[in-house]
């Protein structure tokens, strides 16, 4: 299949006297007054008040005023933390190095993404493939899209001959996109901008046009109104968007929440995936070489996850978890592609498969306890070799066009900044292509994988990373980060922000919770619907392990997660507020009774179920929904909720309502604040300047509420504990 390039990213010793005053008198909290309304919903005979329903209206002046008032309180608190600016300076210093992505070839040029250091957005450069790379020129600079960097590049896709490019842009972090078409040689825009495109790739059909996906523009707020009928269109170049051909999704029989279409590399077939949830899909194929033919179903139900990865003429290579929870590759002829005709090509193994193709070979990435193993197969299914990787970590990018002789892949782990390697496809030889010149020495740090026992006896892996020589005294500030959902795997990767945390003496721990994809479909399903509590239990057990092993203690432990991970933090802190000191829920799904009523949220029901499914499901979800489990009279931990006012993936009302509940019912002295980024969405495309500011705020809040009043360098000499 054609690839689409996306932009899709402390141990100086901490010590603090145990009797150190935790709260300055000038930091006493007075929260904005948040009005309450008498809205009540009834679920299966049970009345559930929703006093902050009005905060769901993202277009109202009242909500805008509330956001402004909350941000003023939050920034006033953060501005008084004496070492916040010093953390920001550290972040800017380590962030300021050249970052270069893996090269890729289109037409006569080789392209790559590069950020000089502190640029808000990556810039795309290119050079003639047969020329010296030093002759590279700027091809597209997203930093010119807006002065503040809040307009970002979403995706970039080239026509078959490389002479045209289509790219999408996001404004203020929204999932809604605009698409522009440009002449790749002259870099001039060639036609009117396409608008109102969402959850879409850009897949060219030769050089004449491309396929994309979108929804009808919803009534009401485009940032929060429900969208549930996705459609695929074909845009023929130099024609108005209103003339674009509707390919799929225009009838009740074709109604699905998510539909994506892409052409095979030889342009022989159009492959279309249709689904109503984030797991499971129908799969269709259309022969583009024959006029007036319709789609043929390969899989006509959503019981499996299935996709076409490659074809040789009419022979299809299909990746599926049908009868193979860890996935396998099968072959079938396009003339009769249904499952009863499938033949195993690369069988299922005990490890989860994520394959790609390049240079006439298959590259199978297997996750072995959340780290990468890569094997190379030929088109007859014969194992050619296991690819020797630079170390233990995460490898990605083993993809290239069929006629390429080399490809580029990335390698990283928690202590190794992402480096690019050139791989000779025929010989299997790897050579370092680019290594970032970052002011960070991996030799000073170590990662340790442990297996701990969750509440029900399940063994769960966790990687703990810290500076060598760490003293296990229970006083190390620790961030426990988790996700646990949607078949997402947390594999080792380097983060600039985590580097600063560890440089200052902090511990960074990442457990591979159930609900993720690290051990296949069964591991994922074990953290869904009526088993969702397993995810929270796994996270709680990870915290208890870190405390029992003296990496940290409750006074020095923070929990962090975003999106579904924000739900994880919200549920954990309401179930066990005694277990940790700081909670950092970001863009979280906090109102579990209503999540499915916003934007494309109904598609998350595979993982969550909905409050409308049954009385049993309603009661189960209500039992952990963060908004509905904040209780009066409880001393909650210091909490900094973060969200963006343009988040149309997990609408900010989730975070607004959770913060309002916490502020109303907090019985203790710990601050419960919300930081609302303006002109920002769910995270993708966030300008570097905003990332640095937000991280400095989060780290300062975390350390201050663990009892630190100066940065560790000063603490080391001034406070002996």
From TrEMBL:
Its main location: periplasm. One of its GO terms (molecular function) is serine-type endopeptidase activity. One of its GO terms (biological process) is proteolysis. It is an enzyme of class 3 (hydrolase). InterPro entries: AB_hydrolase_fold (IPR029058), Pept_S9_AS (IPR002471), Pept_S9A_N (IPR023302), Peptidase_S9_cat (IPR001375), Peptidase_S9A (IPR002470), Prolyl_oligopep/macrocyclase (IPR051167). Its EC number is 3.4.21.26. This is prolyl oligopeptidase. It comes from Leeuwenhoekiella nanhaiensis. The lineage of its organism: Bacteria, Pseudomonadati, Bacteroidota, Flavobacteriia, Flavobacteriales.
